[in-house]
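Weekly structure sync - notes
Attendees: PM, LS, DV (DV joined late)
Agenda: review two folding runs queued last week.

Item 1: First target. Sequence and structure tokens pasted below for the record.
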Amino acid sequence: MFAKLQHRALQAAQLFLVGIFFCFPVSLAATNILMALMLIAWLLAGQFKTRWQSIQNNPITLPALMLYGLVILGTAYSPASGTEMLQPLNKYSKFLFVLMAITLLQDETWRQRCWRAFGYAMLFTLASVYANIWFDLPWSVSHNQGWGVDHTVFKDYIAQSIMMSLFVLLCIQNSRQSGQFKSRFFWGIVAVLAILSVTHLSSGRTGYLALVISLFIYSFASIRSRKKWLFMSLFGVLFAVLLSSSNKVSHRVQSVITEANGFMSGSTDGTSRHMMTSSGARLAMWKLSIEEIQQRPIIGAGTGAYRHLAKQEFKDQALCNITCVHPHNQFLFFGVEYGLLGVAAYLLYFYRPYRFASTLSTPNKALLLGFLGIFFVDSMVHGAMWLAVESHYFTFMMALFMAQMPAPQTNKEP
């Protein structure tokens, strides 16, 4: 009887996880509720020794535990208050959720259900983006109709763009693997529409970069012939033409150059108008972060310390509202709070899956490497593991990829 209840709790946890894959692209509140329900069901399912055995040799386990271990250790020497330290303890618990999710995804059937759930959510998002050109959708964040303007549907344009970038790769993979012409054609068209939704219907410079990098990596990893470099050169030219046809891309790229030049030539006393721009604020945050890492290079300033240190540097309240939350670079964020140990652990969090990709079939290898490219880009210019929607995305997608590792064989009695 007890074993049956545990089995039902396990199935419930897996169902909640499938729900998470559908909800994290569209609803933060629903995702948080499902995560809480999944955690409760996972605890009720018990069999923790078996769960541990399923992940103890997984490449992602060590860096995930190292990173959360540093978060806990950092509370011992941080200048931040107890309240300020609670937020990172909660946000970085996603490193534990990665491992929990992997234990629930040992069966290929459940992995496929999660892939489909994510695909349905992104199809709905993509359809809403194009419908938003003509109709003012009540669930859309943006309410401006027409072509060539931002059509963010859920949360923010950065999160939507980086998730859409992975969806592009999924569509390309579905098209390549399909045995029917109609299916290949359908997924090919969806891939093109998804690309255009990033390049022409979004304002996110992070999304542009993530899309370009992920497509390049995916294509490079997929092509095994000697004509790889010729194909990649043609791909680069075609994509450059596509990007140049978008006024939004041209404007946003030019603004990066203008804002960066303004910051370099402007005042750095924390009140310069150049620091209030997106690129200027990033450069100011990165400059502060590097200086703080130089002061405490080994173990950093402690959990929650960045906000505490940034408030001392940026006196202007309007600027601080932008720069005192996180430094818009996850590597530097970990560097400020956990020193070079934190940066090394986070690099290991990328390196282990990168090495693991070599054990997969070519299509799955290309998809995982493309995902890592998106993850790396977002980590360089945003708070990949700090911001809620993005951390949900990277957490559960990482679990889905890394759960492909075969479970250890248990000894069976004759």
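Item 2: Second target, run right after the first with the same settings.
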Amino acid sequence: DFTTVIELGSADAYKPGAFLNRARSRIAEGQFAQARADANEAIKLYSAVKVRGAKKKLGEAYNLRAAINCVDGRSAAAKADNVKAVSLGATSSKCGLR
């Protein structure tokens, strides 16, 4: 369903959330490279939009990418994403902080 929202070119306000949710689905399936690509796209889109709640969602996207990087053994990238997520008001994922 998230892929359909993305492919249909639905309202731009829905696209970043579709990428973020598809990333979560892909993590559950163990598809970390694809999940990271979706998180990257969500970060790009949330950074560009000026809608209510975008900053919070951007923090969630960085937090999600931190978790992906942590699981994938990219601790430096996980730490950087975690720091960015916290600066945007997200809860620390604790990934990459060892």
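Discussion on item 2: The mean pLDDT is 85.
Action: LS to circulate a short write-up before next sync.
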